[in-house]
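Why should sequence recovery work at all? Because a backbone constrains its sequence more than one might expect. Tight turns favour small or flexible residues, buried strands favour hydrophobic ones, and helices have their own preferences. The token representation captures these environments compactly. In the example below, the structure is given first.
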């Protein structure tokens, strides 16, 4: 009598376990019933990168796709980490808040490391350098930095160009745009007298727009890096490890050379 009871309990337990195992198998690719869950959610972790994709050659659209130095380096990092890269194109000023709140895993947008930003986010090792330059109308009356006094300066909001221009000339002399392309459009239309922006995008904009040139004087030299939420040191370290390898084996330089041909 007692034995029978035990056998019954054991049998019941075996039954419960096998049903569980069966259910688990079906979920992970059983053939008779297709899983409703997308594979990427159950197997591959996504790496969400926030950027502002009107910043060639670092991030820009080729058709529907975001390409460029940052997009390609991030792609290789994700590959090394076995993650699936998802790139979100957002306004530059929303990148750091979005990374802080965990909406995005990281921000990669030709983003300059500054002391002020280091108070809100952590940065990876740097992978590229940028220089702030001034775009003007060809043959206009701005010939050097001294001529900027009293002029209207166009910038992309919340960038280092914005910060320098606002600090030096005052907010009244700075018009902020959501991205660099819009600032250059305003320069073309005569709404601003110049645009302060990073040198490589500046070269791209000048090439794409007739009648613009870059002043010979350089503003500041800056380091670009990837930003992470302060508490997400695990991802920061993983990305840094991958980035180190990609710098050491020449992959990063290869990508930079592909997008910035030597003059
Ligand atoms: N380097 C500048 C900064 O960090 C400008 C970056 C703008 N990047 C972009 N993808 N729009 O403030």
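From this structural description, the recovered sequence reads:
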């Amino acid at each position: 009598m007692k034995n029978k009871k035990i056998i019954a309990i054991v049998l019941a337990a075996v039954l419960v376990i096998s049903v569980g195992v069966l259910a688990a198998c079906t979920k992970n690719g059983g053939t008779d019933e297709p899983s409703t869950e997308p594979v990427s959610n159950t197997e591959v972790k996504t790496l969400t990168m926030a950027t502002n994709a009107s910043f060639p050659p670092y991030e820009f659209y080729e058709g529907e796709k975001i390409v460029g130095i940052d997009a390609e380096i991030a792609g290789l990092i994700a590959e090394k980490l076995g993650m699936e890269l998802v790139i979100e194109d957002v306004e530059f000023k929303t990148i750091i808040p979005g990374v802080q709140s965990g909406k995005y895993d990281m921000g990669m947008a030709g983003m300059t490391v500054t002391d002020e930003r280091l108070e809100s986010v952590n940065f990876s090792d740097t992978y590229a350098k940028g220089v702030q330059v001034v775009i003007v109308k060809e043959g206009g009356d701005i010939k050097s930095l001294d001529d900027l006094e009293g002029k209207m300066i166009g910038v992309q909001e919340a960038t280092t160009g914005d910060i320098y221009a606002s600090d030096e000339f005052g907010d009244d002399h700075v018009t902020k745009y959501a991205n660099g392309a819009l600032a250059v459009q305003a320069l073309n239309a005569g709404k601003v007298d110049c645009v302060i922006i990073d040198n490589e995008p500046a070269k791209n904009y000048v090439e794409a727009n007739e009648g613009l040139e870059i002043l010979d004087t350089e503003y500041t030299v800056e380091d670009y890096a990837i930003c992470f939420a302060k508490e997400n040191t695990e991802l920061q370290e993983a990305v840094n490890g991958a980035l180190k390898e990609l710098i050491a084996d020449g992959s990063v330089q290869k990508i930079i050379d592909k997008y910035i041909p030597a003059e």
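A few observations help interpret the result. Confidence is low (pLDDT under 50) at residues 19-32.
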